[in-house]
Every structure is written in structure tokens, then in C-alpha cells.
UniProtKB/TrEMBL annotation:
Species in which this protein is naturally found: Propioniciclava soli
Cofactor(s) this protein requires: pyridoxal 5'-phosphate
Keyword Ribonucleoprotein: no
Pfam families in alphabetical order: Aminotran_1_2
Domain Aminotransferase class I/classII large as annotated: residue spans: 57-391
GO molecular function: transaminase activity
Keywords in alphabetical order: Aminotransferase, Pyridoxal phosphate, Transferase
Protein name: PLP-dependent aminotransferase family protein
InterPro entries: Aminotransferase_I/II_large (IPR004839), Class-I_PLP-dep_aminotransf (IPR050859), PyrdxlP-dep_Trfase (IPR015424), PyrdxlP-dep_Trfase_major (IPR015421), PyrdxlP-dep_Trfase_small (IPR015422)
Source organism superkingdom: Bacteria
UniProt key word Transferase: yes
Length: 431
């Protein structure tokens, strides 16, 4: 009889090297706790889709199955259905992007778009430049491909073009292969910061100067609260690889996103897509096209903007009313997130258990850095709870921070005695 392994995981020696950099994301670990109804979760990034007209959407899907079910439930094109790509081009025109449906690849959410772009460009050890901080899901994908992530600083106007130039030149001088810049110019996840038009121009100038590919991730672009969206980077430069998604402007469950890429890149993406999933979900493409055809989707986006604006206002009001002195935060003009910087010496990760005890959850800032920074930061999202709950969440959070400050004062731990974790030094002021 074969001897049974006494190890917890008998396959531990057999996993691919790349799995060593795959770790459970802080967001996932949090969901279990944060989903308890008594906790105000400022942690997740789930869109609030409760106001979608589900009855009429249901009727449209019913018609779809009856009239086109045979095609909608069949395999499809690896690039995505032509009608879907045409619709995507129409959606992108809202952000002044003019494109050809032939240059679009439909993906399983923009998360898979990130994965495909990474697959076709990255060998182990290649460098990807990312804003500091950056979307945790992108960092996970980049890590899984064994890329070396190098963060580039940003301020309240977005990524710093000079820091980008310096980073590229320094990395190349040491022999690194720098493959692309990953940036979220609109309502960055996690900071909520939007690159100004001048910044975008300067960033593209630097990218040209040093011959650097730019990957623009823009799932929140149309969710602007205070005026028109700033033109996308791709609207200013057709060499930019652009990632889009229906997750925040319609619903994430369909898992439909896309990549718009220069022609040669697009060809490789389609091959990678076929190897990954044969074809992106055909039924979802039919369903989304039916929604776009039969509903006032632009009107729905305006309704989403109004709803998220009210929630953003509730969060900013709550932070203003409840945060102890020394706490700062960003003031987003769209999207889902506020980035909070705690008073010096405080550690958002260490504080989380106490926060959950006080029935409020957030994501610690270090989740958004590949290098352990962000210890004094946290991401507070205002997309999912109601305005009243968000306000209450900030009240609870304020109490937690105040109690920690009081405890530190009692024990004589001043700002000059930070806990010994990286990232707890001076935090960049993004507010
Ligand atoms: C910046 C960013 N990119 C990509 C994604 C992935 O979105 P999806 O795969 O649902 O399109 C998200 C989701 O939160 C995000 O915030």
C-alpha cells in the first residue's frame, strides 16, 4: 500500500515556480469578514447595480434566447463578436477615442485583458512600471508572470513624468528590460486621483522620448462626477494599449471587457486569447449588445454618476466630521475610492482588526504596493454601501484612529516612534 504523505499539501514540491509569487490578496481575505451585515464595508470595490431595470432587462434577455439563442449559446470568435466590437467602439467614442473594431479584442473583464497583455509582453524578470500605489488585481497578474514591478511616484495630479523618465533610464542602465508602464489615469484605484490633461501630455512625451509602451486601464472613466471626463491617453496617442470594461458602467457579472491595441499587438492578443479561453463568453456579448441597443445606457451612466456622487459626498462629509487631526485624504472627482493617509506612526494593517471589531472595514494601503509601502494608508470605497452607512462607517473609523492615537499618547509613543514596518515612514501627500 502506498505510504500516505503526512504533509498538509502533498503537491508542495510540484507547483510551478510562478506560484510562489501568487499570494492571497488582502481584498479577498477581507471579504469574508466585511460581508457580515453589521460591518460597514468600505473595503470592496463592488459596483452598486441594484437600480438597474432588472425586469425589463430580463424581458430583453428572454427575447434574446428565443430569437438568437442558437448563436448566442454557441462558440464564437476568439477576437470577440464583430457586433460587440462595433458597440465597444461606440462606447469608447464617449471618451473621445476613435478606433476601428478590427483593433479591439473582447476579453473576460479587463482583468483578463491585463493577463493577456502581460502574457504577450512579459518574460520572468522583465520590468513593469506601475503607479505607486496601483490596482491590487494588476499587481497580482504581474506577480504571477514573475515580472519585476517598479513603482513610479505620483502626486495629486497623477503620475510624475520626470520620475518616470528617471526610472526608465536608471533601470535600463542596470540592464533591466523595461516592458511597459501600467497606469490608471482616471480615478485611480486605489487613490481616486485623476491625471490632469497637462500631466497626460507630459507623460506621453516622456513615453515617446524613452520609447516606452503605455498600458492605460480605464474601467471608471465614464463615472465622472464634476464635469466631462479628461480625454483618455489613447485619445491622444494611438500607440497606447487601452483596457476597457462594462463592469462599472453596466454590470460585472457578464465578465466583458476589452483591449484596444495597435494592429500587430492585437494579432498576438487574439492568439493568446484563443489559447486561454477559445472565445470570450458569447452569451454575455449578445446580452450586453441587447442592453446597449434597447436601453438608454447613456442615461443609466448619468444615473450611476448621480448615485456615486452622493456617496462620494457622504464619505467626504464623514471624513471631514470624524477624522482626527493629522489624517488626510484625497477628494476624487469620479470612480469609487478615497485614499486616506493616517497620522504619522499609525499602521493601517495593524489597525484593521480593531476596525473590524468596531464594525468597519477597509483595505490596508500596503495591498496596493509591490514593495511593502503604504503602511500609513488605507483605501476607503464608497461604491457599495448607502450614503448613510458610508457616513456611519467614517464615524466608526474615526473612533478607531482616535483610540489608537490616544493609546500611543498614553504609552508615550509619539509620531517619532513608528512601528517597525517598511512603508511607515513619511507618506507622500496625495490629498
Ligand atoms: C483598475 C481596475 N482594472 C481592472 C479591474 C477589473 O475589472 P473587470 O475585470 O471586472 O473588468 C478593476 C476592478 O475593480 C479595476 O479597478
Amino acid at each position: 500500500m502506498p505510504r500516505r504523505s503526512t504533509r498538509l499539501d502533498p503537491y508542495v514540491d510540484q507547483y510551478a515556480e510562478r506560484t510562489s509569487s501568487m499570494t492571497v490578496s488582502a481584498v479577498r481575505a477581507l471579504f469574508a469578514v466585511a460581508n457580515r451585515p453589521e460591518v460597514v464595508s468600505l473595503a470592496g470595490g463592488m459596483p452598486n447595480i441594484t437600480d438597474l431595470p432588472l425586469g425589463t432587462i430580463g424581458d430583453a434577455f428572454n427575447d434574446l434566447v428565443r430569437s438568437a439563442g442558437v448563436q448566442a449559446m454557441q462558440y464564437g470568435s476568439g477576437q470577440g463578436e464583430l457586433f460587440m466590437r462595433e458597440k465597444i467602439v461606440e462606447v469608447m467614442a464617449e471618451e473621445q477615442i476613435h478606433a476601428n473594431p478590427d483593433d479591439v479584442v473582447v476579453t473576460c473583464g479587463s482583468q483578463q485583458a491585463l493577463d493577456l497583455v502581460t502574457r504577450i509582453f512579459i518574460d520572468p524578470g522583465d520590468v513593469i512600471l506601475c503607479e505607486a500605489p496601483s490596482y491590487v488585481g494588476a499587481l497580482g497578474t504581474f506577480n504571477a508572470s514573475q515580472a519585476r514591478i517598479h513603482h513610479v511616484a505620483m502626486d495629486e495630479h497623477g503620475l510624475l513624468p520626470d520620475a518616470l523618465r528617471t526610472a526608465v533610464l536608471a533601470l535600463r542602465a542596470e540592464g533591466a528590460r523595461v516592458k511597459f508602464l501600467y497606469t490608471i489615469p482616471n480615478y485611480n484605484n486605489p487613490t481616486g486621483i485623476t491625471q490632469t490633461l497637462e500631466r497626460r501630455r507630459a507623460l506621453l512625451d516622456v513615453a515617446h522620448e524613452v520609447d516606452l509602451l503605455v498600458v492605460e486601464d480605464n474601467p471608471y472613466g465614464l463615472l465622472t462626477f464634476d464635469g466631462d471626463p479628461v480625454p483618455a491617453l489613447r485619445a491622444m496617442d494611438d500607440q497606447v494599449i487601452y483596457l476597457g470594461s462594462f463592469s462599472k458602467t453596466f454590470a460585472p457579472g457578464f465578465r466583458i471587457g476589452w483591449v484596444l491595441a495597435p494592429h500587430a499587438v492585437r494579432e498576438r492578443l487574439v492568439i493568446a486569447q484563443e489559447a486561454a479561453v477559445l472565445s470570450p463568453p458569447v452569451f454575455s456579448q449578445f446580452a450586453i449588445a441587447a442592453y446597449l441597443d434597447r436601453f438608454d445606457w447613456r442615461g443609466q451612466i448619468v444615473a450611476f454618476r448621480d448615485m456615486y456622487r452622493e456617496r462620494r459626498d457622504a464619505m467626504l462629509r464623514g471624513l471631514e466630521d470624524h477624522m482626527p487631526a493629522g489624517t488626510t485624504w484625497t477628494r476624487p472627482t469620479g470612480g469609487f475610492f478615497v485614499w486616506v493617509t493616517l497620522p504619522e506612526g499609525l499602521d493601517s494593517q495593524a489597525l484593521l482588526a480593531r476596525a473590524v471589531n468596531e464594525r468597519v472595514a477597509y483595505v490596508p494601503g500596503s495591498a496596493f504596493y509591490a514593495d511593502g509601502f503604504g503602511g500609513r494608508n488605507l483605501r476607503a470605497s464608497y461604491c457599495f454601501p448607502t450614503a448613510e452607512r458610508i457616513y456611519e462607517g467614517t464615524r466608526r473609523l474615526g473612533r478607531v484612529i482616535a483610540a489608537e492615537l490616544e493609546m500611543r499618547a498614553t504609552f508615550g509613543l509619539g509620531a517619532e516612534t513608528p512601528l517597525h514596518r517598511p512603508g511607515l515612514g513619511p507618506a507622500p501627500d496625495l490629498s
